[in-house]
Amino acid sequence: MNIGNIIFFLLLKVLVLFLYRTANIGQIFVGLAGPVCQGGSPALSATWFPTNQRTTSTAIATIAAVVGSAFSFIIGPSIVTEVKTINNTE
Hints:
Blueprint: H1 2-14, H2 19-38, H3 40-48, H4 54-79
Helix pairs in contact: 1-2, 3-4
């Protein structure tokens, strides 16, 4: 999923003339990665937990992924302490 996001944003910045195509390519990679990332929770639940606990374990794993992603937005600014400008733009 991150590869799709990186390709989407890098190509979006570098190849402005091909905006439509690069946006579609990035979204295709994100779309291809989505089922792989989201399918891990049910597979883990089906493998490790009995039938009566699978719903709870799937819910916890799914929420943990979302909370982890949100946590990256919280901790990111504390890691990047200095912001430099490029080409004198802010």
